[in-house]
Amino acid sequence: MSDAPVRYVVLSHSHADHIGGAKLWPEAGTQTIAHRQFVEEQRYLTELEPYFWGRNRTLFPWMPEGPSNIPLLQYGGVQPDLLVAEGDSYAFTVGDVEFVAMAAAGAEGADNMVLWLPGERVLLTGDFFGPQFPQFPNVFTMRGEKVRKPMEYVQSLDRLLALEIDTVVPSHLNPTQGEAEVRAGITRIRDAVQYVHDQTVAGMNAGRSVYELMCEISLPPELDLPQNHGKVDWAVKSIWEYYATWFHFDSTTELYPVPARDVYADLGALAGEEALLTLAQGYLDDAQPVKALHVLEILLADKPTSMGALKARESALTLLLEAARAGARNDYEIYWLQARIDDTRLRLNGAGNP
C-alpha cells in the first residue's frame, strides 16, 4: 500500500459492507465523492438500522448480535465532499491515471456509483450489477429497503454500453475480462430486466393478477442469467407493486389493519387438528408445499405446539429448500428457508420436551 496522500475516496453506494471503513481513510485534503442520493439513502438506513439488522441477521446469522458501539465502526455519519447527480459524472486524475466517477442508479439502490478508468478501459462497479457479473439483479430486495426503479436501471446499463469496457471489477467476486464478454453480459442484463418489466406491464394491462404473473413470466433461453441474487418471479412482484402500489384491488380486507392471521386460530379450532393435518399432508403428497404451509399456519395459530403440524411444516420447508437448491439457487431464498427450518426444529424440541 502506497504511503502517498489519499486524495479521493469514491463511495459506490451506502450499504454498510461498502462504506464501513470510509471514515478511516480521509485526511487533510481528501475529497469524498458520492452519488447525490447517497445522503438520503444513508439517512433512512441509519434511522431503520435496528429494523434492518434483525432482518439481515435472520438471513445472515454470522452477523454480530447488534451494531457496533465503537464510533468509527458505527454505520452512518459519512459526509461526502462532492455529490454527483444521477446521469452525471466527475472526472479527476491521480498521477497519470484518469478516473471518471459516474452516478448510475443500479441493482443495489438509487445511489450507485461506478468508477471508470478510460485509459485502462476498466470499470470498478461496486454493486452496480450486484455481487457478481453477469446475473439477474435484485429489482427491490426481500431484505427490505426503498424501491429500486427498473427502467432507471435499464437507462444506466445503456450508459455503460456506450463505453468500451474491457474489464469489469465488482466489489465481491472475480473480474470479467474481454470487451466482447463484458458487452454481452451487460446487454443480457439490460434485455432481461427490460423483458421482465415489459411482460409484467403487459400482464397488468391484460388484467392478470400479480401471482398469476409470478407463475407465468420467465426468461427466454437467450436471456437466461444466474438468479442467485435477484429472482425473476420476485422482480415481477416488485415491478407490479412498484406501479400498482400496496392495494391489489383484490380484497376489501386489504384496506384494514385486520390480517387474515387474526382469524386463523378460530378457523383452526373450527376445522380441527386432524382434518387440517390430513389436508396439509395431501398437499405435501401432491408436491404443493406452499399450500401445505398455508394450512399449517392456520393449524399452528390454534395449536402452536402441535407435533404433527411442526413436523409437516419442517417437511414443507425442506421440500422448498431442496427445490431452491436444485433450481435458481437464490441465496436469499435458501437462507430464509434454512432459518425457518432451524426455527421449526427448535419448536419441535420445545414441543417434545415441555
From TrEMBL:
<dbReference type="InterPro" id="IPR036866">
    <property type="entry name" value="RibonucZ/Hydroxyglut_hydro"/>
</dbReference>
<dbReference type="InterPro" id="IPR052195">
    <property type="entry name" value="Bact_Alkyl/Aryl-Sulfatase"/>
</dbReference>
<dbReference type="InterPro" id="IPR029228">
    <property type="entry name" value="Alkyl_sulf_dimr"/>
</dbReference>
<feature type="domain" description="Metallo-beta-lactamase">
    <location>
        <begin position="3"/>
        <end position="172"/>
    </location>
</feature>
<dbReference type="InterPro" id="IPR038536">
    <property type="entry name" value="Alkyl/aryl-sulf_dimr_sf"/>
</dbReference>
<protein>
    <recommendedName>
        <fullName>Metallo-beta-lactamase domain-containing protein</fullName>
    </recommendedName>
</protein>
<dbReference type="GO" id="GO:0046983">
    <property type="term" value="F:protein dimerization activity"/>
</dbReference>
<dbReference type="InterPro" id="IPR001279">
    <property type="entry name" value="Metallo-B-lactamas"/>
</dbReference>
<dbReference type="Pfam" id="PF14863">
    <property type="entry name" value="Alkyl_sulf_dimr"/>
</dbReference>
<dbReference type="Pfam" id="PF00753">
    <property type="entry name" value="Lactamase_B"/>
</dbReference>
